[in-house]
Amino acid sequence: MSAVARGIRIEYAGAFYHVMARGNRRERIFHDDVDRRFFLQTLGEACERTGWRVHAWVLMRNHYHLMLETPEANLIEGMKWLQNTYTRRFNSRHRLWGRLFGDRYKAVLIEGREGYYYRTLMDYIHLNPIRAGAVRIERKQSVRDYFWSSLGQGYAVPLSRRARWLAAADGLAVAQCSDTVAGRRSFVEHLDGRAREEGARWAGIVKPPKDRRCSHLRHGWYWGSQAFAEQMLKLARKGLIARKNRTYQSAGRGQSARSSGIRAIARGRIGGGGIATECPGSLTWFGNSQGRASRLAFEANARKPNASRETSKN
User: Which pLDDT belongs to residue 111?
Assistant: First the structure.
């Protein structure tokens, strides 16, 4: 029996991603504050190893969100180290074994240098505790009251109290808030205002477009303009051409599957899938358990455009 093919990922220098991972069977990945500190320590080490810059983050009980910038094309390498290292530390501390995270982590490409897409994702991540009920705006609580996010430990505090890997200054600049007491207060007030206006269920969520082939903040393979999507598709095609005469050259059926997959994405047939590469700057194949080439899973979710929607609050 052959292994199930995975989707591919796109990596390139300067890429932005919305990364999210949940616990296996949606179980907790953080039991207490010690676990959360372990994760942040591990994330900081990952940033030192890879050069990553984190623009926003939040830790919940059974999942986390990151807004990552990768100055080098190394998302896959870095995420493998981050999740494997934290899993080992978590299991060692709690005297457990086996997998901690369920399925693959989600990594949505972001048009990070464009203010609208950057700002909406940053707000979405920071307002997660509102949607999850961890902060009650009706009880006069503030988003800042949730400690385990880049708001409470970055955007709302002076530079001297921030982690070196957190790019809060960039986020404040995009929000047109100065990195001063007044500017940081304005940043927090903006988030609290959105929470009050939009309510706990919808805080930070952008209304989906009528055309489900378009980009959306909560599902799909990218969050950006149509021009950005076309650039990513060109990168994917370039990677396919570059590898055409390399490894797995003889897998004729696989080559056809890859080409049809690119066409499927271009036509917008994939609403919940992803396009990516599992090697820096290009595309690659995955082998099954017998070492043979597996088809790329471009069309894995073509029949279920809402397959990647999260069914619980996030």
Answer: 95
Quick one: 227 exposed, middle or buried, by C-beta within 10 A (0-12, 13-18, 19+)? exposed
Angle 64-285-7 (CA atoms, 0-180°, nearest 5)? 35
pLDDT at 22: 97
- Going by C-alpha positions, the residue among 139, 156, 150 that lies closest to residue 190 is 156
Distance CA 21, CA 228 (A): 24
Residue 287 has a pLDDT of 31
Say how many C-beta atoms besides its own lie within 10 A of residue 168's C-beta. Answer: 24
Pairing assessment for the beta strands 222-223 and 106-110 based on DSSP bridges? parallel
Q: Running DSSP on this structure, what letter comes out for residue 105? A: P
Res 81: pLDDT: 98
Task: Please report the pLDDT score of residue 171 as a whole number.
Answer: 97
Residue 173's Cβ-count burial label (10 Å; 0-12, 13-18, 19+) is middle
Q: Tell me what pLDDT residue 306 has.
A: 41
Q: Name every residue whose Cβ is closer than 8 Å to that of residue 17 and which is 6 or more positions away in sequence.
A: 66, 67, 68, 70, 75, 107, 108, 109, 110
Which residue, 93, 132, 103, is CA-closest to 24?
A: 103
Element of type H or E holding 50: helix 33-50
* Whole-number pLDDT of residue 271: 36
Contacts of 69 (CB under 8 A, 6+ apart): 14, 15, 16, 52, 53, 54, 55, 112, 167
Residue 301 corresponds to which tokens in the numbers above? Answer: 């979710």
What pTM was estimated for this model as a whole?
0.79
CA distance 164 to 170: 13
Phi, psi of 177 (to 5 degrees): -120, 130
Determine the residue type at 282: S
**Ranges under pLDDT 70 in the chain:** 1-8, 210-213, 239-314
Q: Which H or E run contains 230?
A: helix 226-242
* Predicted local confidence at residue 229, as pLDDT: 92
Task: Using CB atoms within 10 Å of the CB of residue 232, give its burial: 0 to 12 exposed, 13 to 18 middle, 19+ buried.
Answer: buried
